[in-house]
């Protein structure tokens, strides 16, 4: 959340060798001290106005389509502080409003869609509020209460919008953040001070589809799925909504103790976080169509019977949907289910101790140790199916563990190098951990490993079969994935069949289950990221060395060397199955002919790994490994000759994993039929 500048008394930016009281971070920290009231009343108000006539053009070259874009910002507010009871009770309050109106140029470059160009309003509004009460309870006790609010609402392009992205794809982004703080500072002894603090933080944000009042006029594509015309830079519709609600409670205690030449600081932090987030993607579908230019290229080389008709112009949605389909992705299902709780809850504990020791009048040493532990963040209740052992190893199928070894040692020094006290050398080093931040990675893993039917289920065009008949060259049952060339199957055909397609996928997913006998990933044959059992918390090694010299009153020259090395940083999902490798994937792909596996009809088979010690006495089919890779259809007990086997692309699970170390392949792989 943000705070108005009027409420900030001072702030500190830290990027290297943090004070151990800072909290859990490896990259940077911002510490803000808010203003408070005093024995004198003080206040101010302001109003700032900017528009396109008072501002420079926001580019090096003017856009001929919009050479003088409209822009207007009104920013107003006030701050007021003073005594409620002199020398005892004080207040401070601040309010700031921002109202910005701008425009965005939408101009598709393809001549067929140039008429859809327009200048679109791009409004943004925000409110920031803070109120603080300070009270002097006694000579040794002081306390304060503070409430801060930051709310905003905007209508803007979603993602990396281009000039061909029409406003029907834009999103309305409401955001609401609140923070409440309470603190009690107690002087226990002249050399010992306690600072007890409690924080509550609430945040709600989301991406919502455009409303009629957000997108006035014709707003072409509003209410339609997200549709991209490949090769034309033309996008309409929306298929994604998202949101999150989070609450965090934090309790901290910090002690400061002066003992001789030592300044000791030690304390503890506890954070309890509950978060609910959701993203409905590909709802009802995400569609890609061939552009008119690509269709004309195809028609120039096709026979008369294979040429695809195009409308004379593209003035309506119906005209656009007459373009041939290139690909589609559909998702069905609910975000939560019997095995998927609505919220994710986790705790963070932290302890620290540090000392600043004045060894000599010109030399001070700083050293300390912190420890942190995050519990409940990982999906510790979800183990992995046994057939993933070639990627994770048999021991790696266990759920990821919460890392208990996050120790953060640090030390440094400050040395006044010259007797005139004008040259100071400072240095230090430390290890600092980051909190777990994986975006939607943990949510995706939880859905993939959950019992069948829980969570969202997405399928690309290669897994969606044409339910319609009578389309030349695209018979019923053809996968709706036409990446190589356009066909007679158009966007209008897809819209006609979309309800039937979604109903079929929902039926395929079935009712959400609680038992783990069949999981989502076993039906979808793809998923990720999946976190390894030995996943390690990311951290950074900080080292700095600097010298500072006063060369004149109020003039100082500083030179610093800073080194930061980040370790075990999560890079995002990596395909350790090597699905596209020239050697073939780690988990092999086969097609089992009819009757070859215990009389089952022809169907895709999945690889199920077993360690040699756990091999079943009468397996369906054992595959002989060779140098860690399956040698092909050489099985025990004897199966039909290799000639009866045919590889089938797409039968292999595509698995993304997150790992911090190597994994070993299982010594044996058995195959079992799946539907």
Describe the overall structure:
There is one protein chain. By secondary structure, the protein is mostly beta strands. Among the domains are: 287-339 and 450-531, no CATH class; 590-673, no CATH class. Helices cover 8% and strands 46% of the residues. It has 6 helices and 29 strands. It has helices spanning 292-301, 317-320, 389-392, 441-449, 491-509, 520-524; strands spanning 8-14, 29-34, 42-51, 71-85, 89-106, 118-138, 141-156, 171-189, 192-209, 226-230, 234-236, 241-259, 262-280, 286-290, 325-332, 344-360, 363-375, 406-416, 423-433, 457-460, 526-531, 539-552, 555-567, 590-592, 603-610, 622-626, 629-636, 654-658, 668-673. The chain has a 15-stranded antiparallel β-sheet, with no helix packed on it. Strand 16 and strand 17 form a beta hairpin. The longest helix has 19 residues, at 491-509. The two termini are 49 Å apart.
């Amino acid at each position: 959340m943000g705070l108005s500048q009027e409420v900030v008394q001072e702030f500190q930016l830290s990027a290297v060798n943090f004070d151990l009281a800072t909290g859990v971070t490896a990259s940077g920290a911002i510490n803000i001290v808010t203003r408070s009231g005093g024995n004198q009343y003080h206040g101010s108000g302001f109003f700032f106005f900017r528009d396109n006539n008072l501002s420079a053009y926001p580019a090096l070259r003017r856009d001929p389509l919009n050479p003088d874009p409209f822009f207007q910002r009104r920013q107003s507010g006030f701050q007021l502080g003073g005594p409620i009871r002199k020398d005892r009770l004080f207040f401070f309050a601040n309010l700031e409003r921002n109202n910005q109106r701008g425009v965005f140029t939408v101009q598709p470059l393809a001549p067929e869609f140039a008429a859809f160009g327009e200048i679109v309003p791009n409004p943004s509004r925000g409110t920031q509020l803070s109120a603080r009460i300070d009270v002097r309870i006694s000579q040794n006790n002081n306390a304060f209460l503070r409430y801060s609010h930051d709310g905003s609402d905007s209508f803007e392009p979603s993602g990396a919008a281009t000039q061909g992205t029409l406003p029907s794809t834009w999103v309305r982004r409401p955001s609401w953040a609140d923070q409440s703080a309470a603190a009690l500072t107690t002087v226990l002894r002249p050399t010992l001070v306690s600072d007890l603090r409690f924080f509550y933080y609430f945040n709600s944000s989301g991406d919502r589809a455009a409303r009629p009042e957000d997108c006035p006029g014709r707003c072409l594509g509003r209410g339609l799925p997200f549709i991209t015309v490949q090769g034309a830079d033309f996008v309409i519709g929306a298929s994604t909504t998202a949101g999150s609600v989070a609450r965090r409670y934090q309790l901290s205690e910090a002690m400061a103790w002066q003992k001789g030449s030592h300044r000791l600081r030690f304390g503890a932090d506890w954070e309890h976080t509950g978060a609910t987030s959701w993203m409905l993607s590909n709802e009802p579908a995400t569609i890609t169509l061939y552009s008119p230019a690509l269709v004309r290229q195809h028609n120039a080389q096709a026979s008369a019977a294979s040429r695809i008709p195009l409308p004379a112009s593209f003035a309506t949605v119906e005209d656009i949907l007459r373009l041939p389909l290139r690909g589609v992705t559909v998702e069905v299902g609910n975000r939560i289910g019997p095995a998927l709780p609505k919220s994710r809850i986790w705790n963070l504990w932290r302890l620290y101790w540090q000392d600043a020791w004045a060894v000599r009048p010109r030399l001070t040493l700083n050293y300390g140790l912190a420890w942190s532990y995050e519990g409940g963040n990982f999906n510790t209740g979800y183990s992995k199916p046994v057939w993933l052992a070639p990627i994770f190893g048999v021991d790696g199928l266990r759920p990821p563990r919460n890392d208990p070894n996050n120790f953060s040692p640090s030390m440094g020094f400050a040395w006044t190098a010259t007797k005139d006290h004008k040259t100071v050398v400072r240095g230090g080093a430390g290890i600092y951990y980051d909190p777990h931040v994986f975006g939607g990675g943990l949510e995706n893993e939880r859905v993939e490993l959950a019992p069948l039917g829980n969570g969202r289920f997405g399928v690309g065009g290669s897994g969606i079969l044409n339910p319609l008949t009578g389309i030349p060259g695209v018979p019923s049952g053809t996968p709706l994935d036409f990446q190589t060339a356009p066909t007679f199957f158009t966007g209008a055909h897809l819209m006609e069949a979309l309800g039937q397609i979604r109903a079929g996928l929902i039926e395929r997913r079935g009712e959400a289950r609680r038992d783990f006998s069949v999981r989502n990933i076993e039906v979808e044959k793809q998923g990720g990221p999946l976190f390894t059992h030995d996943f390690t918390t990311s951290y950074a090694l900080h080292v700095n060395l600097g010298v500072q010299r006063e060369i004149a009153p109020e003039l100082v020259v500083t030179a610093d060397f800073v080194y930061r090395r980040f370790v075990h940083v999560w890079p995002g999902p990596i395909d350790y199955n090597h699905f596209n490798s020239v050697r073939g994937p780690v988990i092999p792909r086969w097609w089992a002919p009819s009757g070859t596996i215990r009389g089952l009809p022809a169907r895709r088979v999945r690889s199920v790994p077993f360690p040699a010690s756990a091999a079943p006495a009468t397996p369906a089919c054992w595959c002989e490994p060779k140098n860690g890779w399956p040698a092909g259809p050489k099985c025990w007990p004897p199966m039909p000759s290799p000639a009866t086997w045919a590889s089938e692309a797409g039968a292999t699970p595509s698995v993304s994993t997150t790992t911090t170390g190597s994994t070993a392949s299982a010594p044996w792989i058995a195959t079992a039929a799946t539907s």
